[in-house]
Specification:
The protein is an alpha+beta fold. It contains 20 helices and 35 strands. The strands form nine sheets. Strands 1, 4, 5, 6, 7, 8, 9, 10 and 11 form a nine-stranded mixed sheet that branches. Strands 12, 13, 14, 15, 16, 17, 25, 26 and 29 form a nine-stranded mixed sheet that branches.
Amino acid sequence: MPSLKNLLSKDNLAKLDALENPHVIGLVEKYVALCKPAKVSIIMDNSKDVAYVRQSTLDKGEETKLKMEGHTIHYDGYYDQGRDREVTRVLLPPGMKLSRRINVIDREAGLNEVLRFLDGAMRGREMLVRFFSLGPTDSRFSLCALQLTDSSYVGHSEDLLYRSGYEQFKRLKGSKDFFTFVHSAGELDERNCSKHVVNKRIYIDIVDGKVYSVNTQYAGNSVGLKKLALRLAIYRANREDWLSEHMLIMGVHPEGKNRVTYFTGAFPSACGKTSTAMIPGQTIVGDDLAYLKIDDEGNLRAVNVESGVFGIIQDVNPVDDPLIYKALTTPRELIFSNVLVTDGTPYWLGMGRSDIPKKGMNHSGEWWEGKKDAEGGIIPFAHPNARYTMRLSELENVDPNVNNPGGIVVQGILYGGRDSDTNVPICEALSWEHGVYFGATLESETTTATIGRTGVRTSDPMSLMDFLVVPLGTYLTNYIKFGRRLKNRPRIYATNYFLKHEGKYTNEKVDKKVWLMWADGRIHGEYDAIETPIGYLPKYEDLNSLFKQIFKRDYKEADYNLQFSLRLDKILEKIARMEELYKSEEGMPKEFWETLNQQKADVQALKAETGKSEVPPSFFIEHR
């Protein structure tokens, strides 16, 4: 077996040695010996090395140039089109307990299995050794990440999504304080897609700070720095008294006022996260992952873990998402994945065009309208989970503090759920503990397209359930304690953009801007609010004024009552679901149960007092 020195050029050896980190060198040696690549390349932060990775994606056929300058297309295998929960497992040491909904495997057995699949997995190919920083470089938030991969597409994606970290590794001064990600696409088929997806494995070793992924190329499984690193960071944060969150970060800029108010927000899938982050006139710091810490003045500060966007492209169109659509249809460095390409032009579902070609190339190979897969299902022209990958700086609404090493001061937190009949469009928490309850009880209502029937609620506390590698009770307890250490606590809000009446949404898509501006005004003491058992509600006159100011239209009081009345029976139904869900969850904080029981008692008393199932906001003004 060739030694590491035999596989590395003199230049590459010098790059590795310059780090003066025996832990990095030891890991590279270990996984070179295991994966058996034919070549090893050490990639630094400089433009020459980064360009080498980008060019290699084309040379190896992992990406193909499109007609638009800078645009490329990548395809994952037909059965490798999303995060695979079944084979994504946390390696569980003896004696450790996690929440019951986390997929686990015995640590020793899991390591033996995944290392067996990685043995020789890179034979005949090149291993790229990459260095990245999670969070801004040279910052108290910075976490170093070492990526070993045989996929140039993965390396190129990470160059768009993360900050280069070779120089950051030098600041470690030989320390082993970094995460490690080992990935191999495994044997490839004629389309350069992972051939043995039946042997796909994504195993997370939270104890050792490592992630192993093999026989997969889909970025959610292979780009370890994204949701896989989120799990490692959650484990670390809960042992070091900070927060690693699945949250957007945005700057809110009210019209006619010389200020910016920063919000973070956690939204389960299809609950309005991207549309909130991209509200016209606001700025974006990050759309997905955030690290949160307390500064010396007792403020909550946050940074974007990433510096790019790996976004779902379905339904991005010039009407609903004009800024993103413009970025996707103009020259820049950008990777499309799993969309239809005809004559060098990409097409995706919901892009707002009626002239979609009847044939071309897509995730199934050569495609034509009516093509069926092996199971007899009609193959759409693009995959519903098709993606775009680009630098955040390419967006016109990027915030100037996106790379601020000190982060931004958070003054508001949003928890966005989705239901058609229970929660009001926006509501402010009565306290920090009540706000944590908002996050812990997040639900998303399924649609017909999801599982064949509507009205089913899926619980996703803090929008983190898939990634929570500590017990939920431990996480929530730490969250409450974290907030109590803050001198300047952000206000917390629950949002629901999807309330319906007689089958129709009660508000327009753009109305979320009004809800957000009301929250901003509350933070700055500009609006009073109505105290209710579920939280503080907006007053009608304040919302009407905002609708006139922002949209030049009246907001009818009938619409206000329809949207902001408390649906007592539905609220009690949700409380009952939460009781059932969490009664067997060990270690839930007492504050959670105190909040739940208080709200339950208050709502029951309100129902008994009024004899009604719905109570308008005016009741609380008149009777309190």
